[in-house]
């Protein structure tokens, strides 16, 4: 007999159309969760896979994590179709490999808006209902680069440090309401984003998206209730790109 630890829970995943986000959506569904798949495009494929291959419940939502109207609309649609959100996975993110002197202000702002403003907006939208229920889980995806310095990625590193700080601060603030907030800091993962950014890097020992999905979903399970307001390094055997 298979015990579904997240049966009837509602999970919302940003960047759910590919890579770590897609695998996280699928794994959440396999644990019994109803899943809202949010991305700028192509979220239907993940949602349809959950419905057709797993027999789970899922909806596809579109929008931009930077825009408050898109965020609030997606949360409202989820509440209307699936119920109030129990689990929020802020996975959507962007990265660039570029020297500081060549980084335009617009590029800097874009990376901060996607990687930091997005998790803030979605957390702000779902936390009130979680407080009412005195239960909830928020997982923010940072990076191993959120724990160290490195060349040619100052905008990205800054944003991922901020994600860790935000997760720890919010986690402490929400402890009285039994809402757990954690950051996950992946090492190198073989995703399309990384292929686009660094196609020529050696990928020996890089992790696969499912490896990170396992970490993320485990943090959502009741057995992980002792873990909150912290950052989990999920580094595997790889090395950060460029090191």
CATH topology-level name: Rossmann fold
Q: Please report the distance between the alpha carbons of the first and last residues.
A: 46 Å
Largest sheet: 7 strands, parallel
Count of DSSP helices? 7
CATH homologous superfamily, by name?
NAD(P)-binding Rossmann-like Domain
pLDDT < 50 stretches: none
Radius of gyration in whole Å, from Cα?
17 Å
Mean pLDDT: 93
Give the overall shape, derived from the CA principal axes.
globular
Question: What portion of the residues fall into strands of 2 or more residues?
Answer: 15-25%
List the strand order in the largest sheet: 3-2-1-4-5-6-7
In CATH, what is the class? Alpha Beta
**Proportion of residues in helical segments:** 40-55%
What structural category characterises the helix and strand content?
alpha/beta
Reading the helices and strands in chain order gives EHEHEHEHEHEHHE
- Tally of distinct domains: 1
Question: What is the CATH architecture descriptor?
Answer: 3-Layer(aba) Sandwich
Count of strand segments: 7
Strand and helix map with partners:
Blueprint: E1 10-14, H1 19-30, E2 34-39, H2 43-54, E3 58-62, H3 68-81, E4 87-90, H4 105-133, E5 136-141, H5 154-174, E6 179-186, H6 192-197, H7 209-220, E7 230-234
């Amino acid at each position: 007999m298979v015990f579904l630890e997240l049966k009837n829970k509602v999970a919302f995943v940003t960047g759910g159309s590919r890579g770590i986000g897609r695998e996280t959506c699928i794994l959440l569904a396999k644990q019994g969760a109803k899943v809202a798949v949010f991305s700028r495009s192509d979220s239907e494929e993940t949602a349809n896979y959950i419905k057709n291959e797993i027999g789970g419940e899922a909806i596809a939502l579109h929008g931009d994590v930077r825009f408050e109207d898109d965020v609030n609309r997606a949360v409202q649609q989820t509440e209307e179709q699936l119920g109030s959100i129990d689990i929020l996975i802020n996975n959507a993110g962007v990265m660039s490999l570029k020297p500081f002197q060549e980084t335009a202000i617009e590029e800097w702002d874009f990376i901060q808006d996607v990687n930091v403003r997005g998790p803030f907006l979605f957390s702000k939208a779902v936390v009130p209902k979680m407080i009412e229920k005195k239960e909830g889980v928020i997982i923010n995806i940072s990076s191993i680069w959120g724990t160290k310095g490195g060349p040619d990625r100052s905008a990205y590193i800054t944003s991922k440090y901020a994600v860790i700080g935000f997760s720890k601060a919010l986690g402490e603030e929400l402890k009285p309401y039994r809402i757990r907030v954690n950051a996950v800091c992946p090492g190198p993962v073989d995703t399309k984003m990384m292929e686009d950014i660094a196609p020529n890097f050696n990928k020996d020992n890089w992790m696969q998206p499912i490896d990170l999905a396992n970490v993320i979903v485990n943090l959502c399970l009741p057995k992980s209730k002792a873990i909150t307001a912290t950052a989990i390094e999920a580094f595997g055997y790889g090395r950060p790109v460029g090191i």
